[in-house]
Amino acid sequence: MPHIDYYFTPISPYTYLCGVRPAEIAASHGATLTYRPADMIAIFARTGGLPLAERHPSRQDYRAQDLPRRAMVAGLPLVAKPAHFPTNPAPSSYAILAAQDAGGGDMAGLVFALARACWAEQRDIADDDVIRDCLSAAGFDAGLADKGLLAGAEAYHRNTEEAVRAGVFGAPFFITDTDQRFWGEDRLADLDAHLAGRI
Question: Is the pTM for the entire model greater than 0.85?
Answer without folding.
Answer: yes
